[in-house]
Amino acid sequence: MSTEDRIVVRGGKRLEGSVVVGGSKNAAVAIICASAMIKGKLTLENLPKITDILILLETLEQLGASVEWTAEKTVQIDASDITSYTADNPALGKLRGSYYFVGALLGRMKQAKVVFPGGCNFAPRPIDQHIYAWETLGATVDTTGGYISAKAKKIIGNNIYFDNYSVGATINSILTATLAEGMTTIENANREPHVVDVANFLNMMGADIKGAGTNTIRIKGVKELLGGRSYSIVPDMIEAGTLMIAAAATRGNITLNNVIPEHMESLSTKLTEMGVTITQMDDSITVKGSSKRLGAANIKTMPYPGFPTDLHPQFATLLSVADGESKITEGVFPTRFQYAEQLQKLGANIQLSGESAIIKGVTKLIGAPVQPTDLRAAAAMVIAGLIADGQTTVYNLEYLDRGYENLINKLKSLNALIERES
Ligand code: EPU
Q1: Active-site hit among 34, 55, 120, 246
Q2: N or C: which end of the chain has fewer CB within 10 A?
Q3: 180 C-alpha vs ligand 1 centroid, how far in Å?
Q4: How many CB atoms lie within 10 A of CB 73?
Q5: Under the phi-then-psi rule, with left for phi > 0, alpha for psi from -120 to 50, and beta for the rest, what region is 379?
Q6: Which ligand 1 atom is the nearest neighbour of the CA of 123?
Q7: How do residues 141-180 score in pLDDT, each as one tens digit?
Q8: pTM of the predicted protein model
């Protein structure tokens, strides 16, 4: 992908129509890595075709698995013959979820060496809780030389007690403990829907994981996992949320299909409070913006079921044109405010104060060139472009390409004036 690529948005159109939400990026990255633990052919459906996924599939092949796209969103994987425990694809350094190969390979082969993860750089992202979990399960871990290396004579179930509700550390512990000897209990586990999705996937392949979706997860180690089944990735709540916010911001009226309304509860509640009409069906949500200016709102991001940090920048864009003063407090990544400088270029009034942003709503944003530096900030800029007067040009598209499947085409199908240009 050329680094010169850009998105040009002309603001002022209401989003209208219906669109199908894709599979969850953060579930899919973990499930692809988890596939390295499974003997026999398996099928993954509803996979989002985004850069992070393509890099992980390429790495699976390099480890010795066979990978074949059999339909637009369907991949067949056979990792029966994996012989290598080294994932040294340099591209792994660009994404965060690559550390799930450590959890998976350590479980299956009792050894793993994986390129040190990267990912969006909006905050310090330590991995001490991952290391603590692997060591508690009997491994020694080394993080020098650009790799995470872990090995163990035996992986033995144990009690893991996390200091915080980490998505990554919870999933990595599940992966390694699934093929351990004996019982593992994870306390203070993260409850995010993608954690539940990983557990459901592994259980379908023969694991014994109970309690995913609560703060205590119990895993009885099994000897092996066997494929022979198909698994469909859960809908992406962050893609859904991004589109819901875009609809509210443009005073549009859209229906999202393939969503789990329960996952959207924190966002739906805030949008309703601001004046948006939300209608939920079994697996769809209709978002109808108000003809009046939306009211201000305060949010605090928190682990699920709290308001998602991955919707913070997009929601800030919406609040930047709301009627009154709003406050966003970041409760997961205290420094996740890099989007603010970009939004200010369009005329937003945002003051940062510690772990909060105070946003005084302006009556309009004015289009400008913007250079977001992470995935969700990039989505926030696209939404800003949809409501700003004139033209907004969004650069640094490698972030959007990493995490949103077909966002531009989806917005176009909803009436937006948006193009990708080289
Ligand atoms: N933390 C530690 N030590 C650790 C791990 C985490 O102190 O060992 C802290 C973090 O610094 C942070 C908090 O715990 O303050 C939560 O971090 P978490 O581990 O939950 O985040 P992550 O696993 O690195 C995943 C998603 C992120 C999403 C966060 C929070 C993936 C690949 N990434 O990151 O997604 O923001 O959970 O929900 O699943 C995105 O999609 O844009 C994205 C950044």
Answers
A1: 120
A2: C
A3: 24
A4: 17
A5: alpha
A6: 11
A7: 999 999 999 999 999 999 999 999 999 999 999 999 999 9
A8: 0.97
